[in-house]
Write a structure and sequence with these properties.
single chain, alpha+beta, BirA Bifunctional Protein, domain 2, elongated
């Protein structure tokens, strides 16, 4: 018999981890609700046609495909074997697979909007907190199953939506205590760079290569661009672009020299400057940074794009997103603009663990353990347990009459802060002994005093 194990890139979560993750979820959810976003959930699987072609060449390779039902039928199985080579070559065949696990939450959301747009109040603001799956190589901060938390607005071209989403990012991370840099760029600027370097058809080649800059460095990016057909002059222009540095103002001055009179590029610059200036007099401004190396290699972005990095932590991006003004057009429902952002909860968790940012009270589940000292005593204790529970106080009665040492060890292992003891004397007096297990302090209280105790 083989030892039990988990698939690579997946994890079990203990109670303490779940509580910390829930703290992140609840913080994000409360901020999103305060901004007028409403919840949505979509299926774990989507039709393969819904997902393919939406994430670029690299992203499509990471989609988990689901085998069709009925492949135990010999005839179907023989056909599947013939078609499997097509799957390995990156092609798709309905004889073998028609569905896939969702890669992100944005495309399923676009599919939902396309199917329901006539019934939605526009602009439609939704948030979604669900797991996604990617056939990626597992490593620190990168998993095959992980949660995303998305906030999207569709039905509006207004840049006020980008302003709000930048603010939402800053507010969430402020409440979580994570110091972040919110990097911003505009795909129109990248489109202009492509036009300057050989034409719009170079856009995908350039963004895919630039998106790898942090991972492989400038020399490898130049090699990849050369391999994708760009000449020396074009590569030199891109290198100059990628070396833009300084304050936001200094970066824009350098960028405008490269972009020149390109109409698309100047529109992208104007949009980005407008959003950045909107925040210049509030706390968000110190977190915002124009970063023209930011590419977000997904095909569907058309305007401003975001990426969030945690300062003082060894971690990749912990959030990202952008504008996608024709995403529903891929589902034959054109002219519904949208913009959205995503929180990488698993990476946020790892950052908060590394920097020890979780509040101590997040760890606490049960607030008070009632000791079990006999049948009559436990019956009296159980009545008080139920009353405390009805008041919203998490309480337990130890499951059997055991030695004090065993019950204290149970409380210690579960980090329960209070113990309540009802012995024969307390039973007669309708009282309890309550002990603070953190400080060792204990006191006698009547039953009624216990029910009003500040746990």
């Amino acid at each position: 018999m083989s030892k039990p194990s988990l698939p690579q890139g997946t994890r079990d979560f203990s109670a303490s981890v779940v509580r910390k993750r829930n703290y992140i979820f609840q913080t994000i959810r409360s901020v999103m609700e305060s901004y007028g976003f409403q919840p949505l959930e979509t299926p774990a699987m989507e039709n393969l046609d819904t997902l393919m072609g939406k994430y670029g060449e690299e992203g499509d390779k990471l989609i988990f495909k689901i085998l069709n039902n009925g492949l135990d039928n010999p005839a179907k199985l023989d056909q599947a074997k013939l078609e499997f080579d097509k799957i390995l070559a990156g092609k798709n065949t309905k004889g073998l697979t028609e569905r896939a696990l969702r890669y992100d939450l944005t495309i399923p959301f676009a599919r939902y909007v396309a199917m329901n747009h006539a019934q939605l109040t526009m602009p439609f603001k939704r948030y979604q907190i669900q797991p996604v799956w990617r056939a990626d190589r597992p490593q620190k901060g990168r998993y095959r199953e992980f949660y995303q938390c998305d906030a999207d607005v569709v039905g509006s071209y207004s840049l006020l939506n980008e302003v709000e989403l930048a603010n939402l990012y800053a507010e969430v991370f402020k409440q979580l205590g994570v110091d972040v840099t919110i990097k911003m760029n505009n795909r129109k600027i990248l489109a202009a760079l492509a036009e300057i370097c050989g034409g719009a058809d170079k856009m995908l080649d350039i963004t895919v290569a630039i998106d790898k800059l942090d991972k492989i460095g400038i020399e490898k990016v130049k090699e990849e661009l050369s391999g994708r057909g760009l000449n020396t002059n074009q590569i030199n222009t891109i290198e100059t672009y990628l070396q833009i540095d300084g304050t936001n103002e200094e970066k824009f001055i350098a960028l405008k020299k490269i972009i020149g009179e390109n109409e698309t590029g100047n529109k992208g610059i104007a949009e980005l400057e407008w959003v950045l200036k909107y925040h210049q007099h509030n706390f968000v401004s110190k977190h915002l940074q124009a970063d023209f190396t930011l590419a977000r290699g997904l095909n569907y972005y058309t305007g401003i794009i975001f990426e969030v990095k945690a300062n003082n932590a060894q971690m990749g991006s912990i959030g990202g997103g952008g504008r996608y003004d024709d995403l529903t057009g891929t589902f034959d429902v054109p002219n519904i603009p949208g913009v959205g952002i995503s929180f990488g909860v698993d990476r946020i968790y790892d950052v908060m663990e590394e920097l020890q940012l979780f509040p101590a009270e997040v760890q606490t589940g049960t607030k008070v353990l009632f000791f079990n000292l006999g049948d009559a005593e436990s019956r009296a204790a159980y009545t008080l347990v139920q009353t405390l529970r009805s008041k919203g106080i998490s309480a337990e009665l130890y499951h059997e009459n055991s030695k004090f040492d065993k019950q204290f060890k149970y409380a210690d292992k579960k980090q329960i802060p209070y113990a309540v003891i009802i012995g024969s004397k307390e039973l007669l007096e309708n009282s309890v002994v309550i002990k603070n297990l953190m400080t060792g302090e204990q006191q006698n209280l009547s039953n009624s005093e216990l029910l009003s105790f500040a746990f």
